[in-house]
Design brief:
Blueprint: H1 3-20, H2 27-30, E1 34-41, E2 47-54, H3 59-68, H4 70-80, E3 88-93, H5 96-117, H6 123-135
Parallel strand pairs: 2-3
Antiparallel strand pairs: 1-2
Length: about 140
């Protein structure tokens, strides 16, 4: 199977799971605002590793809720996608959104400090002073 086909299947799996996860009635999943961030289907299409992130709730409880609803989600994927074999779903927490928010917070804290250090210096004035010194 060509690699580009697996890529298309991964993308379609993400889209369909994002839609199907809204139908899950388990409060551990529906209250946590779970979003699907990625999918990796094995070359033989028997297994799929699904990456997710959750905005609220206990991460352990959300993982349990997703594991318990894996059968329902697999059935929904089988109905929505035209695959010979519907992959077995394994859910993995994706920390990239949390990590990105942490880095953004750190950058936000560092930027005001840098602005406080040199509030009077204006880069346009420095360029003008340098030009005057070179001309004379």
């Amino acid at each position: 199977m060509a690699k580009y086909r697996r890529g298309r299947i991964n993308d379609e799996m993400c889209k369909e799971l994002a839609n199907a996860i809204r139908l899950v009635k388990d409060p551990r999943v529906s209250d946590a605002f779970v979003s699907i961030t990625g999918a990796e289907v094995s070359p033989d299409l028997k297994y799929a590793k699904i990456f997710y992130s959750a905005l609220r709730g206990d991460p352990k409880e959300t993982a349990k809720g997703l594991r318990s609803s894996a059968g329902f989600l697999r059935r929904e994927i089988a109905q929505r996608m035209n695959l010979r074999i519907t992959p077995e779903l394994t859910f993995c927490y994706d920390e990239s959104i949390t990590y990105g928010a942490h880095i953004s917070k750190l950058l936000g804290q560092a930027m005001p400090e840098a602005a406080k250090e040199d509030p009077e210096e204006d880069p346009s004035e420095e360029d003008g002073e340098e030009e005057e010194t070179h001309e004379s």
